[in-house]
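TEACHING EXERCISE
Course module: macromolecular assemblies
Task: Read the component lines below, then compare them to the predicted structure of the full complex.
Student: A.B.
Group: 4
Components provided:
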Amino acid sequence: MIEEVKAKLGNPADLTTEIMDNGYTTMELCFFPSMCDSHQVKDGILIPFSYRFDPDEFRRMLRSDLDFTYAPNQDEWIDLLLQGCVLLQYEGKVYCFDAIRKLQTQPEDTEVEASLQGPQSAMTEDLDMNTYLIRLRYNSPTLVIRKLQKGEISRTRINIIYDRDKVNRQSLEELEKRLDKVKTKLLQASGQLAMLLGNNRYTIFPVTLQTERPDRVAQFLNRGKIGLLVDGSRFAIMLPVRFFDFMHAMDDDYEPFWMGRVIILFRYIGMMLSMTLPSLYIAVSMYNPEFFRVQLAFSIDGSRAAVPYPAFIEVFIMLFMIEALIEASIRLPRFVGSTAATVGGLILGQAAQQAGLVSSIMIIVTSVVAISNFVIPNSSFSYSIRALKYVFVVTSIFYGMVGIIVMSFITVVYLCNLRSFGQPYLALFLPNDKQPSRRTE
Amino acid sequence: MFKAFVVLLICSLLAGCGMKDIDKRFYVVTTGVDWTGNPEKPFRVSLRLAITSNKVESGSSRTQIQTVEAPSIAEAVRHLKAFVDKELDFGHCRVFILGKDLVANGNPDAMSWFARRRDIQKVAFVGVGEPDALSVLKVTPESERFPGNALFLTFGNEGTESSYTVTTYLFDLTRRHFEEGMDPVLPVIRSLDKTYQIDRVLLMDKARMRLILNPDETQLYNMTANEAGKSEVKMPYRDGRIVLTVNQIRTHTDIAIGEVPLVTLKVYMSGILEESPPEALENDWNGIERQLGKRFSSEVEDLLYKIRDAGVDPYGFGLHYLATTFGNKQDFAHWKSVYPEVRFKVVTHVKITGPGVVR
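Instructor-supplied answer key:
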């Protein structure tokens, strides 16, 4: 066996091959020590083979232990080795021992979708751990987990999970069709898979939702949605989704009813502001100043007196600064990040206005836009809103207030047109739970 | 994709030319129109323009006044554009002041300019300047933070809410000008040294000024016609005076259709006594209510007869009459012919809710 493996792998330096002899018999062993858990190898193979060797018991163990699988097929050997299994040949038969090294042994803390009073555990970058977390939360016999692999080189394991009774069959079929079409060399993150699965490359709004919260996955499964877990990524992809799912934070379900509603309302207001405020500023200060109250119009007029450029250039300057600041604070290492925020904040806050580059009202507009964008609970959705803001800005430069109104209308029409895996994106109401379950399996 | 881009590019060419930055506009805050008496150029148009500044504090408002004489208002404004460096914007012109001479002599059709300009808000306030509009424009109140704000606050009821001040909106003036059986009413703005005095009202027929009410009559008019709360009813009582602050006032008009119509005005008011001799209310609560009501009724009746004799109808009794009859031309002709003899009856119900103190 060893020769064949070595020939196929090209004798890599990190492959350990051994012919072991305990005085009674010999066993051939080969594995990648870096990919295997050495304790498991020791406990599972070496101890029974050396100190406590009993030929009958050893044979029985090989045949009945769950960790050992019989691997007669030569073509499989390399795959198994690369996944972190130990191959051993005993009495002419080749067995595979599962000793994959696990980096994560417990759930991580939520980082992206923090919650005040909800569960604090998030998914990890290990597929089996994630599957366990979901099984734990959605402890139902109808939960289906299907396995597949994607990526020619990475061979990333993917689990499709859904509730067999509640799942939307139409979406499931659609998903299968699209998964068949997915061809990629490296699959490293769930976001990548989400993009490959998406409607087309030019969709402005995300049609799948990525979440790191197992409680959210469970909630979605209960609503008949489908989840995709990608090995090596702490985010599950949920589909099909609606517009309103993106604006929903798990805390809304854990807080008292009215408080939750009020917060949701604020979130929608924040979204609208972050999307339209810069364009409103342009439209109102360039086309329709009578839209303001007279007092506000005069103070904007006064504060803009020192600004040499028209309002839209001012907006572009400030929006570029704030986007650069946000981008910088995400990408920078944590200990430099605070410096960037301080420097940027100072420039945005005071200096730019004193230098007469922008008006003081524009600084307020910019900060409202930035802050209310963070109110959106889902990051890919908040990216969409961030991008859409520029469409509104450009429209308002040419058409003023009318442009903004027409653009909002177009946005709503577009949202109505959008489908997430066959389901309407802007559907207001969930399908009724009382509908007869469509059980087919 | 390329096609969509080209369409977008073409669309961007459709942009209008309404684009003008907010700081490139000169805001007119008050417009004054005076009568010059010169038949060649009868109108003197004055614009009070706001000079905005970054700092906002009391007394920091600065304005600039531009005046020109012209045969019509539209020509005057067109001409005034040549006097200033920024585009004139009437979007925030909330106050229009007509000179007293203009109201007395002018041609009301020339005023249609206000109603026709699209950038003039129809909720703008209209008043009469005494002695003329320009002198009212020149007043710069010390307390003004924003240019022109003092008049906005006065008329808009955002700041002071005085029962002596009647507010007339531009749309209402236009409506009353054309409506049969209802005549325009305008507040009189008088310029004092550093402030305005707005406690009179000017009554017009369809074309000219007819009557100016004094402050007391103005308050009575405002209470009965506009149901203005925060007003007062007063009367002498024994050796002191009783002042009732009216919190709520409701009026109801009934017109009995007869040979000579009888207009019954029912007034319901309630409020607290702000001034009264000691122990007066405890002794005769109902009596005081009755006496106040009686006195108020007679005062209002006097006012109504005075207004009737001037030949104007600011209350819109004529309109009410038309609404209760078939409202055709004969009806209105009949009303016009009998209006000088119309009789008025005012019934007032006063309710004193308390003496204003807790004992």
